[in-house]
Every structure is written in C-alpha cells, then in structure tokens.
Amino acid sequence: RSFAQSLLGFLGFIFWGTAAAQFFGGVSVILMFKNYRYLFQDSYFSLPGWLALATALTLLPAGVLAVSISVKCSRNKQGILMYLLLLLLCLEMSSAVLACSYCVRTASQVESAMGFLVHQHNWTCSEDPGNSAVDVIQRKLQCCGVNNYTDWLKASSSLYHPACVPESCCKEKHAHCTGDLDHVEQLSEEGCLKKLEDHLCFSMLYIFWCCTVLSVLELLAGVSNGILMRRQPFHELRIL
C-alpha cells in the first residue's frame, strides 16, 4: 500500500512533465500541416496533433489527483482519477494509431503534390517568382526540386532547357546566387521530398512514442490507484 501510494505520487509529477511534451508534439504537428497545407489534400491529417493537445490538457488534472491521493486517499478523487486514466488511454491509443498510419499514407501524397508544384511552376531565368508555394518550401527547408535540382530541368524540358533554377534553390550563405547552373555549388544539394518526409515522420513518431510510453505509465497509475481503492469498503465506492 505504501509503495503504491509513493508510486502514484511520483507518477503524478511525471504526468505534468509529459503534458508539456505532449503539448509540444501536438503544436508542432498542427503547425507543420498549417505551413504545408497546400501539400495535403485531407485536412484531418492534423488530427493526431489535436488529440495530443487534448491529452496534454487531461494530464494536468490527472497529475493533480494522483499527487493528492498519494497524500490523502479520497474515494471520490480515486474514482475520478480512474475515469481520467481511461479517457487518457483512449486518446493516446487513437493518437498513436493515427500518427503511425499517417506517416506512411502522407509520404506518397507529399511526393505527388511536390511534383505537381514543380511542373506547374511558371518562371524564367531573368526573374525569381518569389512567393509561390514551391519557393516558400525551398527557402524554408533549404532544398531544391523534388529529389534534386535536376527536377527543374525535367519539368521545363518540353518548353526550353534553362541554364538556371529558381533563386529559392540557392543556399542562404550565397547572397549573390541567381540559380545559375554554372555554379552548382551555390545550390542546395538535397531535394525537398526527403526533407519533408523526414520532418513529417519525426513529428508523427514523436507523438507515437510519447503516447506509447504514457500509456504504460497510466497503466501503472491505474494499478496503484486500484490497490489503494481495495482498502476502502465496497459500499463507499458506489460513486463508481
């Protein structure tokens, strides 16, 4: 009983810390899909982020109750904590499954959308389009084309074969870069597809592992709380 009480109090403090981790993961996923919304056809891909935020908000009162019960047992608080732990398990399992599946499903969608943006991009060597979707992505991620800069040459081969790529492909340290292919060393080597996929999967896997670890901790909290509840006479637990 004393060990269960101590463990429950410790887990209460852990819940507060993990609430911050879940909040960070949820916000990062939501912002990522907001920043690159033109690459995703389905708006529900940000759902794991919203579920992570809901989990973070629920973890705060759950942590308060766990610490409070470890100090002084209360059948009402113990019952409410059990309900919160059940709700948290549902939220986290849903978020983990969605995050894992979306990491795989969105990869092909990102590749298709990026290829479309590159092929539909209207530009010439004499001017930089500047604020189009693909330019924003290339500047933000410091990348060029879908797989590399040669994608720009393939995209425009039916019209003409330019000796340059958009200026958004230039590395930040080269202020006078104009996208001229005579100075390939001034261009970003990596394609945008790999960077986008890495960014996407990192955010999704972060949420997945956070939810998995939290689920184990919540099961421990539920077992500890159950041990303490067994000490109470059954008629005092009718609120459940």
From TrEMBL:
One of its GO terms (cellular component) is plasma membrane. SUPFAM superfamilies: Tetraspanin (SSF48652). The keyword Membrane applies. InterPro entries: Tetraspanin/Peripherin, Tetraspanin_EC2_sf. It is a multi-pass membrane protein. It comes from the Eukaryota. The chain crosses the membrane at residues 7-33, 45-68, 80-99, 204-228. Its main location: membrane. Keywords: Membrane, Transmembrane, Transmembrane helix. It is found in: Membrane. The keyword Transmembrane helix applies. This is TSN36 protein. It comes from Urocynchramus pylzowi. The gene is Tspan36_0.
